[in-house]
Design brief:
It is found in: Cell membrane. The chain is α+β, with helices and mostly antiparallel strands. It has 2 domains: 190 residues, no CATH class; 94 residues, Alpha-Beta Plaits. It has 10 helices and 4 strands, in the order H-H-H-H-H-H-H-H-E-H-E-E-H-E. It has a 4-stranded antiparallel β-sheet. Strand 2 and strand 3 form a beta hairpin. Helix 7 runs antiparallel to helix 8. The longest helix has 27 residues.
């Protein structure tokens, strides 16, 4: 099983690196859109000095990787090295692929989307392509007051600012759009598209509501102990996670048993457990596990 997982993760890194390279070579690089990070800096240097984008990315990532191993430990492992190497190699291998559009808006949106999809697949396999995230970790190591998120923002701001100085500020603004699109797609790949809903129910009919959810919806319910700040009364708060399609049915059950119940609903981007991301594919909780 470990070998299978190992091979699957590296296959994802290969596929993700290839897809990400297409976002660069078929959309972003030909239109001088530098979507932050090492790839964006390599794009700027390509047009200023004629340097190949793929090998320039590799040349910048190798010292970053070595510094990461020296100062941050060997936790990066082969996945970061493999991701950085493959991303650079695929970028060079696909540099002569046809450019699908020279429309700046289309190239920005589609390039950011494809780049983000590829990087998201790599990150989902617990890999990395080096670049701004590794640079940000090093910045955080030497300047602890700068968080990794702030470090990534600083690196991307610097690269896109350089894009504006080297070419024009309109291209820099398009680069910000590409960066935003790619980051959102990365989050989507990481978190998945099957958003669920977490529901908290405060009611005097908590027992009856929980029983009906268990029996009719076959969803697990958890009692959370709570105390009213104004009344000082001890009561149970029900917590239940359901799919978006089940939310209306759940609210109807609550309203039927207690129209005055206080209900809080919020999005859950990822749910790991039986009945959701893995385990029982039907989306239902088996009877033996209902009373958890």
């Amino acid at each position: 099983m470990k070998i299978k997982t190992f091979l699957l993760e590296y296959l994802q890194i290969v596929i993700g690196s290839f897809i990400g390279s297409l976002g660069l070579t078929m959309f972003l690089v030909p239109n001088k859109v530098a979507a932050g990070g090492v790839s964006g800096l390599a794009t700027v240097l390509h047009y200023l000095f004629g340097l190949p984008v793929g090998w320039t990315m590799l040349a910048m990532n190798i010292p970053l990787f070595v510094a990461g191993v020296i100062f941050l430990g060997k936790g990066f492992g082969l996945k970061t090295l493999a991701g950085a190497l493959l991303f650079s190699v695929f970028t060079e291998a696909t540099k002569n692929f046809p450019v699908l559009t020279h429309d700046l808006l289309l190239s920005t949106v589609y390039g950011g989307l494809i780049l983000g999809a590829g990087l998201g697949i790599v990150f989902r396999a617990r890999g990395s392509t080096g670049g701004s995230d590794l640079a940000a970790m090093l910045i955080n190591y030497f300047i602890p007051t700068v968080s990794i998120g702030q470090g990534i923002l600083f690196v991307d701001f610097f690269v896109i600012g350089l894009d504006g100085v080297a070419f024009n500020w309109e291209l820099a603004m398009y680069s910000w759009i590409a960066l935003y699109v790619s980051s959102k797609v990365i989050d989507l790949i990481q978190e998945g598209v099957n958003y669920s809903k977490a529901v908290y129910i405060i009611s005097d009919e908590a027992e009856n509501i929980s029983r009906k959810i268990l029996n009719e919806m076959e969803r697990g319910v958890t009692f959370l102990g709570a105390k009213g700040a104004y009344t000082g009364e001890e009561k149970n708060v029900l917590m239940c996670v359901v799919t978006r399609l089940e939310l209306t049915r759940l609210k109807n059950i609550v309203h039927e048993l207690d129209p005055r119940a206080f209900v809080i609903v919020h999005d859950v981007h990822e749910v790991l457990g039986e009945g959701f991301s893995f385990g029982n594919e039907s989306g239902k909780v088996p009877l033996k596990n209902k009373n958890r």
